[in-house]
Amino acid sequence: YSSSHHRRGGGGRGGGRGRGGRGYNNNRHRHHPYRRDDHGGGRYGGGGGRRHNDRYDGGGGRRGGGRRHGGNNNRGPRQPANRFTTETKSVDPQYAMMKQLTAMVAKMGDLGGAAEVAATMGDENNNSEAAVVMMRPVVKTIGMNVSDLVEVLCGPQNAQLFLKFGDDEPAITANNDDNNEEEANEGGDIAAMNLNDGEAKEDVKVINATKQAGTLSTLLVSCAYGLPLQTPSYAALTLGVDVKAPKETHAGFAGRCVDLAMRCLGRDLDMALECRVASGVGAHAKGDDGITIGEHDKDNVRCLAERTGGCGNGNQIDAYYRAKFLLRYLAYLTKIGIVAAEDGGGQSFLGLLQMLAQAATNAAHASANSNDEKKRALGRASRVLASLILSVLPYAMNNANDGSEKGLSSDTISDLVDVIESNVVGQASSYSSDYDPGTGPLSILLKGELDDAPLAGEMEEEEDDEDDDDEEDGDQPAPCADTLQDLLRTVRKLVSSSSSTRFALLGDSPWSALTMDAQSSSMEDQEKVPMEYSGEQLILDLVGGEEDRCKSVPYLMSIDNADDSVEIICRSLDGIVFGRLAIFDAPSEGGDDDEEDEDEEDAEETNPNLESYTKSYSLGDRFFLADAIRDVLMCHRPMVSDAGADRNNAKEVAEQVWSISHLFLGADSSDDSSSKGIEFGIIETLVSLIVQCTPQGSGMPSSSPLNEHVYLSRVLLELTKLKPSLIPQAIVLAVSGMFEDFMPSLTTTARDNLGHWLSFHLTNTDYQWPKSYWEHWAPYAAIDQRNSRGDFVSVALWSMATLSPEGPETVARECLPAGTTLVQSVFLNHKRSNVDVSSTETDLINRIWDTSEDPDSIRQHIISDELLESYGSTIRSIDDNVDNSMAQPKVWWRTRLATRALFHPVSRENTRMISLAEKAWKKKASADGDNDMEDENPAEEGRDEAEDILADLSDAIARFKPVLLAAVARDADAYDSEATGKVDDDKLLLAGEVSILSEIGSLVSAWDSTAIFSLIECLMKNQIVSSLAVATWALCDNADESTNVSPQWWKVVSLAVNKAITDALSKVESSSTDLGGGIGMIIDDGGANDGVDSTEADVNRLDEALKAAVPILKYSLERACHLLSTTNSPKKIPIAAADLAEGMKRLSRAALFQLSSLALSPSPTLTLSNLQRGLMSMDADGEKLASACQAVECDGEQEKKLLQHVAFSVEKLF
């Protein structure tokens, strides 16, 4: 295999397969704005030819010049990290050999490499067998790779080496992994994981599943659940080794693979459903079963942060995807005939799916119409199981086109779909998507459009009867708001018409290329026949009897009489179900002749690839394309192990994503145009994931790798470099389409995510963007009244400014076209007016920042009567405050003066940057303008290049804290002495803290959100302002209009909630260790506290966290609902009201996460049910909060609907 069929040439990680540096060699390379490397041959140089046959001596291989060294990559063998070390490591030959085997198995079914080989082969080696002739060239090449590998593995000399299992399987030590680490890492999580989440009990017999199955079986199964695009090749390898292996010594290879796969499936189902022993022993039910899979390899196991990352369900998401691909692997084995399809009773493949469907149905029924968290967890578990079943059904369906009867019939699949649709996911069930427009807590789209102001000279669109009909229709939930609903629709369509998709992975059968000797042929004339499985069909045992492989499914099967020792705590569907957003037009379903004529007339004006995508990619094609992209993004994501080893990068992920283009059949037998326009499907999927990413600055981590903004942005950037002639224009058309058609319907979060991504993308592509688009967008940003399109442009430009050290100057100089009004409307309009700074303020600034005067002397000055006489005389008396409001700015004149002086560097820096941006804008717009700004002298603007403003302010805030507190106290005393009536001291001090925040908000530029968040966090850390003051300021408590509230208000409040919880828990911990004299942490109590009930301590922690967070949460929701009710719109949604509604949903979600992660996660016994009961005790459960939202009175029809949507989301979340 390694010497005759390694046809992949090319070199360098930046290089490509078969072209010596991805086709850009030193003679042909041309610079492109999206390509950063201006040298040919990729990152490590180019390599040899397309079909170099020596694996180690140059030419082929993914790293240039062979898989290890050679070629022309100038890299050589990997060197030790310390070049001066004299230490040598012995290399275990068997370990090194298995590493090489791992690399071969992992690349055996690689689509990119197989496609290149198939392109060079042409019509050569066409087999006479009809099945092989009908195969796609890519699949035929993969089949040949499998056949060659089988010959190597099962040869007379190699079988004893590669096919060992059971007691003959040696323990392979991983004492040296630096030579072949990267090759071993090609196959996903090759080192399978330990099923134990805790230590096995002494009286439990340990079952080493890896040893029983053998190294090759373990490797094959781990590749099957780690490399989703290569699953058919691993099914073919299972067949080939089982048939070719020596029967006397190594028979039953397929059986060992299936048995190991079922053990892994049982483990992963328990982890995906978050099944655990109710007593709390271990995190999952697998804490004491004594089954282990795989030896522990530190370099191949994801680090703890990744396993438990996101919202704490990293293990759950990984387990779900492994279970999904294991079921797919079993489905292929069923189509081969290795696994019993329907004849094995309850232990056939159909029996397994029916068992899972029954478990999902039972869980759904148990959770129906219940607000109890334990039962709601069962509802989420039912959707996880439904997703697994629906995902595998298309791969299990027998292929009617080739006359095969193996697999499941369409009638059988239809029955399973009916069960799921009626009980779990369909409209007849109680399922409501988290992504339903408007009502869903994670909705991407609003239920209606924003009331955007029209451009100057344009008339506002007339509302007609059709709009009213649309609104009535909009009251119904969207049929495909998320990927689970889309999956159900796709499978239903596939059952009724198997030709509804061109996705080839469903029917690919590389095992058809495998052959064996005919039994009747003689030694002289050996006739080859297609390879078939001749053994007894295997049955699937999920539970394993006393082995108890899976606890969750048996528990759900008998849930009415279930044992209380097992508990399903499925907390979330994040990372499993995603929102759906169709950016490009859907394919026509037979339709209107007039529309077809119009399409033909406009065909010349449209992009031909876009036209191909919209017309030739059915809804089924688009779903399978998007699903495959999500699988690749998940399984090939960059990994860092606990040992520090890394694997994969964004460039390799982009290559895998593009290899999906080889998985679509053409309209005819030719594959030349089969993937035309696929770049638009890739962009549609990635952008739809980007808009639903976890918002930046939300105080929450990404719920899954597919919700990580930076990861998705980097992959899209690498795709742009990989296919510079296709991806950039697809991006432009996608953004243009969303700007024109979707922007008024997107939620605030989705719109901001799109803007942040665009800024990241343009910053990393030298700001390459069509000038005409900036000119088209400029008028929307110039409108005085807020509108969704203008907000999108502003967010994108503000984000670009934060990504550059020069801020808006870089945007004006390098990004925007000359003479554009965007600089004026986005940046310059936010410049502070040149108010004369008083001599008193100038003197205070000098004393704080120039002379570094002692804080105590400044404090005495700020509260002195001399200051009142010199500066206070310019401030009107409190008697002029006719409404006696403590929120009036003039009440807090000392506080505001001290705040402006302390935060002067922020004001000075923003003025400098805006001034430079204005100069760059004017210079670029001038007739003889020169874009080179090197002549400008930054020193003239008072900028010290070594200055770190935020770091300096952080130190200054801590140092001059007494000054601010004294100013607040002095202003409060003055108000109290002059005000009539009794004054609430707490409210008065709260108003003083709000005045500090208000002054800071007026100093920081609108585009610099990083600065405002950092300063607020520092003020809370130094206990200058309270968390409640931050929430009060964010929601403009002294204003009665929602237009004054920032769209990002909820992020500020989330920061305050986090700080309140953290402080409360810190007090609990300090009180539990303090003995009264402050030395509790030093004295060893000698085990005196061993008898303290840990559960009681955990409950106390949760109680204190709730006392700190709930008041802020309730205030924020009530205040936001009140502000929302002040708007009045009968037909369209006011943009400020949409910001408030979206903020309430996002804040509720963030508060729940913070309570869960800070107060629940450290506890091994508390669950979300405990949190739910705690919220109920404080009248903050979902029902109470929803009632509070619905009780707010308002006149506008749209506002009433928004309040109902918020109430529904909050009730669902809590």
Walkthrough of the structure:
- About 50% of the residues lie in helices and about 0% in strands.
- The strands form 4 sheets. A two-stranded parallel ribbon has the order 1-3. A two-stranded antiparallel sheet has the order 2-6. It has a two-stranded antiparallel sheet with strand order 4-5.
- A hairpin with a 5-residue loop joins β7 (about 640) and β8.
- α8 runs antiparallel to α9 and α32 crosses α35.
- The longest helix is centred in the last third of the chain and has 32 residues, at about 1095-1125.
- The N terminus is likely disordered.
What is the strand and helix layout of this fold?
Blueprint: H1 93-107, H2 111-121, H3 130-133, H4 137-153, H5 159-162, H6 181-184, E1 207-208, H7 209-213, H8 215-224, H9 231-244, H10 247-250, H11 253-272, E2 275-277, E3 291-292, H12 304-307, H13 314-336, H14 349-367, H15 373-396, H16 410-423, H17 465-474, H18 483-496, E4 515-517, E5 528-530, H19 552-557, E6 566-568, H20 593-602, H21 608-616, H22 619-635, E7 639-640, E8 646-647, H23 650-659, H24 678-690, H25 709-722, H26 727-742, H27 748-763, H28 771-782, H29 788-802, H30 808-815, H31 822-827, H32 839-850, H33 855-862, H34 865-870, H35 893-902, H36 904-925, H37 949-959, H38 961-978, H39 985-1003, H40 1009-1021, H41 1027-1034, H42 1049-1073, H43 1094-1125, H44 1135-1160, H45 1168-1177, H46 1182-1190, H47 1197-1213
Parallel strand pairs: 1-3
Antiparallel strand pairs: 2-6, 4-5, 7-8
